[in-house]
Design brief:
The structure is a single chain. With 495 residues, the chain is α/β, with parallel strands linked by helices. It folds into four domains: 34 residues; 84 residues, Thrombin, subunit H; 243 residues, Dihydropteroate synthase-like (TIM Barrel, Alpha-Beta Barrel); 95 residues, Sulfite Reductase Hemoprotein, domain 1, CATH 3.30.413. Helices cover 39% and strands 23% of the residues. The strands form four sheets. It has an eight-stranded parallel sheet. It has a six-stranded antiparallel beta barrel with strand order 1-2-5-4-3-6. It has a five-stranded mixed sheet with strand order 17-18-19-20-21, with helices on one face. Strand 18, helix 14 and strand 19 form a beta-alpha-beta unit. The protein is globular. 36% of the residues are buried.
Length: 495
């Protein structure tokens, strides 16, 4: 009885303390994860000495030399400056700064010496929230304007769309369609085709009519190819309005796109930035690439066209990230993500996953393409695994397997490869585990719909951590696993 009373007193004392501690932690987490957005008014003066902003003091307003500062002008422009110095007065700050894109800032002043705007301030912590068991943290999504590319919705909260591009000769309709269908089966939702000449353009009608997914024409320089593509029924164009000739050419393309409800993707690569911007910014910097893209977009806006999405690609992962961050701050058009010239399957997958993974985790991106020096179908595997890893979308089976180690007594690599081959064409959203240890395997993979683990002379098969079969020998293990896998797939398909 004395022992029981002692335990009771201990639990009572420390239990209450624990509850209070948990409440304190919850409050801290809540305070650190709730966004607190405020507008701080800003008056910007233009003088001979440069630009000065006068802003009311705010707890969450951080102003340091060298930082970038974005001011939303009342007229709708987003103006970005680099802070040179900050003077603190009792009730306000005086910020001396230089424009990051001078023509944009000068245009916003419209010949005046003063404009008014505001700065958004917020308190945000990237720390993960505590969530109930079985739930996952949801990533933020920036709300962009929504477009419709055929039956596919882009932006505005729609699921992130997976794209690719054929590497066939577009003039060969049969071969091109065959690849498009393989891409579709692998998970591609929009496909782009090269249109280098008139013969390729004339082949687009047959390709469009037989394609299971929307087709985008990749056009450079010749506006007539864009017109032919739209006449063929294609749902979208990838162009740079600035390189298809004089104003009347752009007008004809825009009018045709409007009439057919087509989407135009403005695409800028580090190798396609205009010389004047290269000279102004000292090379294909993120600022130069963003200004190039928005310059092309403004050409479309001048013609009353707004069904636009934008891509800015670089072979540099860090530059790509910075480009899209800047672009996301300055417009609400849907953004197409990609790291160009990423390399082969291994290096390309790593670079693409790092670059796009960071952006997607920040809520940036509405469509994506994993660009690999490989068969286009290989891009689908990486793209869908990237989306799955971030909890954004799921397609087909998820296969988890443990790394090999000194305790592994079976051909774990061979077993995993066989399972991957068996599931390569399946679309059921199941989780499968291939583990190398019969002791820890079921526990480590207890969330798997079906799993196997093996030792030197014994193998087990389990569902949701519960062992359902035990066999002897690796061959018997693989055969039994495939039997159970077929049963599971039949269940999921309702057969």
């Amino acid at each position: 009885m004395k022992e029981r009373n002692t335990i009771h007193a201990f639990l009572l004392h420390y239990g209450i303390s624990t509850v209070l501690l948990c409440m304190l932690v919850a409050i801290v987490v809540m305070l650190n994860t709730v966004d607190i957005n405020q507008k701080v008014t800003a008056d910007v003066l233009k003088g001979k000495g440069g630009y000065k902003a006068y802003m009311v003091k705010n707890t969450y307003l951080s102003l340091d030399k060298g930082d970038s500062l974005t001011i939303d002008a009342m007229e709708g422009e987003k103006l970005t400056f680099t802070i040179q110095s900050v003077m603190e007065e009792p009730d306000y700050y005086v910020v001396c700064m230089t424009p990051e894109v001078r023509p944009v800032v000068e245009r916003a002043f419209r010949g005046n010496s003063k404009l008014s705007g505001y700065v958004y301030t917020h308190k945000v912590t990237p720390s993960p929230r505590f969530l109930p068991k079985g739930q996952h943290m949801e990533l933020p999504r920036k709300q962009t304007r929504q477009l419709k590319l055929g039956p596919v919705r882009i932006g505005g909260g729609a699921p992130i769309v997976v794209q690719s591009m054929t590497n066939t000769d577009t003039r060969d309709v049969e071969v091109t369609l065959s690849q498009i269908k393989r891409l579709h089966n692998a998970g591609c939702e929009i496909v782009r085709v090269a249109v280098p000449d008139e013969t390729a353009a004339k082949a687009l009608r047959a390709i469009h009519d037989a394609s299971p997914i929307p087709v985008i024409a990749d056009i450079h320089f010749d506006y007539r190819l864009a017109l032919t593509a739209l006449e063929a029924g294609l749902e979208g164009l990838r162009i740079n309005p600035g390189n298809i000739g004089e104003r009347k050419n752009v007008e004809m393309v825009v009018d045709a796109a409007k009439a057919r409800g087509a989407v135009i993707r403005v695409g800028v690569n580090s190798g396609s930035v205009e010389k004047r911007l290269l000279d102004q910014y000292g090379g294909p910097t993120p600022q130069a690439m963003v200004e190039s893209a928005l310059g092309h977009v403004r050409i479309l806006e001048e013609h009353g066209f707004y069904d636009t999405k934008i891509s800015i690609k670089s072979s540099s992962v860090l530059n790509t990230i910075e480009c899209y961050r800047l672009l996301s701050e300055r417009c609400d058009y849907p953004l197409h993500l990609g790291v160009t010239e990423a390399g082969g399957v291994l290096r390309g997958a790593i670079k693409s996953s790092v670059g796009m993974g960071i952006l997607l985790s920040e809520g940036i991106g509405d469509t994506l393409r994993v660009s690999l020096t490989a068969a286009p179908e290989e891009e689908m595997t990486v793209a869908w695994e990237l989306l799955r890893a971030l909890g954004l979308r799921r397609r087909g089976p998820e296969i988890i397997s443990c790394p090999t180690c000194g305790r592994t007594e079976i051909d774990l690599i061979g077993l995993a490869q066989e399972v991957e081959r068996r599931l390569s064409t399946e679309t059921a959203p199941i989780k499968v585990a291939v583990m190398g240890c019969v002791v820890n395997g079921p526990g480590e993979a207890r969330e798997a719909d079906l799993g196997m683990a093996g030792g030197r002379d014994k193998g087990i098969i389990f569902r949701k951590g519960e062992v359902i079969r035990s066999v002897r020998g690796q061959e018997a293990l693989l055969a039994a696993f495939m039997e159970e896998l077929d049963k599971l797939l039949a269940e999921r398909q309702g057969l």
